[in-house]
Amino acid sequence: MRKYNFCSGPAALPEPVLLRAQEELLDWEGRGCSVMEVSHRSPEFEAVAARAEQDLRDLLAIPDNYKVLFLQGGATAQFSAVPWNLLGAGQKKIDFIHSGQWAKKAMEEAGRYGEVNIVASSEDRNFSYAPAADSWQQSEDAAYFHYVPNETIGGVEFGYVPEVSCPLVADMSSSILSQPIPVENFGVVFAGAQKNIGPSGIAVAIVRDDLLDRALPDIPRSLSWKVAADAHSMDNTPPTFAWYLSGLVFQWLKEQGGVSAMAELSWRKSALLYDFVDRSDFYSSPVAEGSRSRMNIPFVLADERLDKQFLQESEAAGLLNLKGHRSVGGMRASLYNAVPVEAVEALVNFMADFEKRVG
């Protein structure tokens, strides 16, 4: 029996997608071989790639003046790719909102190529809230503005899209496809696949056309968005199986009603868990109300000495990967699109029983 997986990534995949991949594993489209054994330049795989791109465009209502790129190296590679691709027009300042671990990693990498300006930071309260827009200190001549709409580790989510005069860059690794987004307000959106898109090994970048010619002259070929766009993401052999599986997830999402349906479901799931935690004296949320993530929900026990027992018993009950990140501690339940409501109900029931027995 499959268990309920609350892992932050690589995360749960929709069971219908896994079953279809299993069915097609040895004989894909009647070809007598796996999709992993088909040339990425064959007409058959080109059709897979084209459908995946179109389905993603449909799901997010991506305008025609944006390229959709399927890339290698995960979102972390884009920490390097973003400054390499956007600092070639002479501007060297980069505005950042410092909202947690993933913003910090992106800032450190960008600082190797440009001058980082921290517009706002929530470090003063251990990254437990999203800084309000009226606290920003923006640069007048920034090459771009980078933020993380949802911090996977801290469980903080921005309830708004920043309004800036330079290209807006968003790392949506843990929130993409969980709700509609105004793509036209962004210069670049990128995301690692292993949370809401598909398996690890591939990333997606959505890049506005006018930003493809701003790269530094000595940009590595493997990081160039223009090279990737000109080659339809196939300048070299891509991770074809991850691309294929991501495409199946996009099809599944459309069958569920698209990102609007996912948004409604995410609010329902997260409210179920937050409401229980807020009513309890045994559990608590370290994240400020109004900044709480729908995707990644950290919570702590009143007595941290019970953490080990909680994790052992929850795993025995079929509730997997609830341990919080090592930098934060406590627990964390990631409620991505493929995590069903029944999983959250089972978690809440377990938590109530655990509290009754040991609290």
Automatic annotation (TrEMBL):
Record-linked InterPro entries: Aminotrans_V_dom, Aminotrans_V_PyrdxlP_BS, Pser_aminoTfrase, PyrdxlP-dep_Trfase, PyrdxlP-dep_Trfase_major, PyrdxlP-dep_Trfase_small
EC number(s) from the headed UniProt entry: 2.6.1.52
Primary localisation category: cytoplasm
PROSITE patterns: AA_TRANSFER_CLASS_5
Positions with a binding annotation for pyridoxal 5'-phosphate: 75-76, 102, 152, 171, 194, 236-237
Binding site for L-glutamate: 8, 41
Domain Aminotransferase class V: 4-347
Similarity remark: Belongs to the class-V pyridoxal-phosphate-dependent aminotransferase family. SerC subfamily.
UniProt protein name: Phosphoserine aminotransferase
